[in-house]
Q: What sequence folds into this?
């Protein structure tokens, strides 16, 4: 083995006598039983179950995950972009158990809880100016649904009412979740096309971050992209309730990075045409792009800010939709006025989740998490530049501590692989044998680790990713 491979092997397998390689060793009877039950009973998201091969993660330690046979893997996707402080952080564990000793759950429908109230207050303190109201729900899709329904109902109850404002504008190749409303504003066809007959259709504007899926043409330049937005707002003046977008980078589209100034330009256009702005920071929030919220980088304060994933550092499901007094006031009145927001979730505002979320924000402050990111972002940039030189690495896009590598059959022309070959998934499966867990977006391999990852661990993660890409694209 090379020196680098030796280092990775020793970290992945601290006891070489017990685990001689990263390959699939013979499993214990208990693991075999669990794998069988997993195949038989558990329907996994975005997974073809006929082809599924179980991998059972039993423990976590910092940036590492450990399976039932003791194999260690760097968590290269932060457990679906959530685990900002890594796994089993002692302060987060303590916050969870301390809250459990008080009460695990109380309804947020007409009642409240001190921990949840304190968490809402802290979110308002760190959010962009003007976002003073917090509606809790259960996941990212729910946060989006909340914003869409609030925006729709706001125009019905505004002064004067504008019931004709019922349409939404979304960016091409947008992904905002899997519930029906979120699908309506989503634009990644492989996720949403099948369900379009069940929901509404958003007005699309081209993404300035990635090629047009239909034509393969390059993305529009900044001025062209903003002009396209303005044409839509002009053509549909008086019909549009809100525009929704991910700020700076479209994560699930394939890490499509927007040019500087696009977010600011869109926000200015929304103000000019009196269109509400919904920012989906489910994936970009809580440090992922280098600041607490991506919209801070262009000094944008939206009408709605949708949060989830890193909201509780990956410990418990929770989401939040923050909005302004202008929106809030349109819902105030007597019971007889029927201006209430008739929407809610059983576990919205759950105290356990709120306790962990509150402690996570204290960790951002006490551990100077945001201040530690520039060095990690730059180290990842260096690795990305090296991996970009591989024969089958196409476009490479980075925003903060996330990078996406497109795999291509022909680097000179940018021609991709046939989708049936699943080269992105092959590369991620190969990376497992080198000690890293990654999740592809089609044929885009993504690195999105915990913010707490060390520089040495980042080196190992990049090396495992590079090795996985080499293995999956070898002749």
A:
């Amino acid at each position: 083995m090379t020196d680098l491979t030796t280092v990775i092997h020793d970290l992945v397998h601290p006891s070489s006598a017990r685990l001689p390689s990263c390959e699939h060793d013979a499993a214990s009877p208990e693991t075999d039983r669990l794998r069988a039950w997993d195949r038989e009973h558990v329907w996994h998201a975005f997974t073809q179950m006929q082809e599924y091969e179980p991998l059972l993660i039993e423990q976590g330690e910092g940036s590492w995950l450990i399976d039932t046979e003791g194999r260690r893997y760097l968590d290269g996707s932060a457990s679906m972009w959530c685990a900002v402080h890594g796994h089993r952080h002692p302060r987060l564990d303590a916050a969870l158990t301390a809250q459990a000793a008080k009460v695990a759950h109380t309804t947020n429908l007409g009642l409240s809880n001190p921990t949840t109230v304190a968490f809402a207050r802290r979110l308002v303190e760190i959010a962009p100016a003007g976002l003073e109201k917090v509606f809790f729900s259960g996941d990212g899709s729910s946060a989006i649904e909340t914003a869409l329904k609030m925006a729709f109902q706001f125009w019905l109850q505004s002064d004067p009412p504008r019931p004709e404002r019922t349409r939404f504008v979304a960016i091409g190749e947008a992904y905002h979740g899997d519930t029906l409303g979120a699908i309506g504003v989503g634009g990644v066809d492989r996720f949403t096309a099948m369900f379009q007959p069940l929901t509404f259709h958003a007005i699309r504007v081209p993404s300035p971050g990635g090629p047009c899926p239909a034509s393969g043409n390059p993305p529009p330049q900044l001025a062209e992209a903003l002009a396209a937005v303005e044409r839509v707002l002009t053509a549909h003046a008086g019909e549009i309730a809100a525009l929704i977008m991910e700020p700076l980078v479209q994560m699930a589209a394939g890490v499509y990075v927007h040019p500087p100034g696009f977010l600011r330009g869109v926000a200015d256009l929304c103000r000019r045409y009196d269109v509400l702005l919904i920012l989906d920071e489910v994936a970009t929030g809580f440090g992922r792009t280098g600041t607490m919220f991506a919209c801070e980088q262009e000094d944008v304060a939206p009408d709605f800010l949708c949060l989830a994933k890193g909201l509780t550092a990956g410990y418990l499901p929770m989401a939040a939709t923050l909005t302004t007094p202008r929106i809030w006031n349109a819902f105030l009145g007597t019971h007889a006025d029927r201006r209430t927001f008739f929407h809610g979730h059983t576990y919205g505002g759950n105290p356990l989740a709120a306790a962990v979320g509150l402690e996570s924000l204290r960790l951002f402050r006490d551990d100077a998490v945001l201040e530690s990111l520039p060095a990690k972002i730059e180290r990842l940039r260096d690795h990305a530049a090296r991996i970009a030189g591989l024969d089958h690495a196409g476009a490479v896009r980075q925003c903060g501590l996330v990078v996406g590598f497109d795999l291509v059959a022909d680097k000179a022309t940018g021609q991709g692989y046939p989708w049936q070959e699943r080269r992105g998934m092959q590369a991620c499966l190969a990376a497992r044998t080198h000690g890293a867990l990654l999740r592809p977006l089609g044929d885009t391999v993504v690195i999105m680790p915990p913010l707490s990852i060390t520089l040495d661990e980042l080196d190992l993660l990049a090396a495992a990713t590079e090795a996985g890409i080499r293995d999956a694209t070898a002749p």
Observations:
- The first strand starts at residue 57 and ends at 61.
- The radius of gyration is 23 Å.
